[in-house]
Amino acid sequence: QVQLVESGGGLVQAGGSLRLSCAASGPTFSRYALGWFRQAPGKEREFVAAIRRGDVKYADSVKGRFTISRDNVKNTLYLQMNGLKPEDTAIYYCAADPSIIFGLITRSKEYDYWGQGIQVTVSS
Question: Which band of pLDDT confidence, cut at 50, 70 and 90, is reported for residue 28?
């Protein structure tokens, strides 16, 4: 069983940076597809970024600003967020799945394991 715990969220001013971490207990991330999703007040959960082996994908809204990476030795997923905007304010969730194909990596319902979520607030 995989357990995921997010950290690194908080309050930051517009234009600032923040790095989220997602630490896993259980099997290594090496064979897992890993993703970040977010949900803002009054909105549906949306895809942010994902990585599987050497392939990465970003939502158009964060391209050029966010970077997803992983450390398989530490079993940790990261999301480096630069140039933050107020519209980035949301609860951010990390997710993992052992068998998702890359073509479905943006679909939240395809992931088996989820973290508890962490708040990111960007002030104007």
Answer: low
Angle subtended at Cα 80 by Cα 74 and Cα 83, rounded to the nearest 5 degrees: 170
- Per-residue pLDDT tens over the stretch 64-74: 999 999 998 89
Residue ranges with strand state E in 1-117: 3-7, 10-13, 18-25, 33-39, 46-52, 55-58, 66-71, 76-81, 90-97, 113-114
How much is the average pLDDT of 97-111? 93
Contact predicate 116/25, CB 8 Å: no
- Spell out the long-range contacts of 98-101 with Cβ–Cβ below 8 A and sequence spacing 24 or more: 98/27, 98/31, 98/32, 98/33, 99/33, 100/33, 100/52
Tokens standing for residue 106: 């943006």
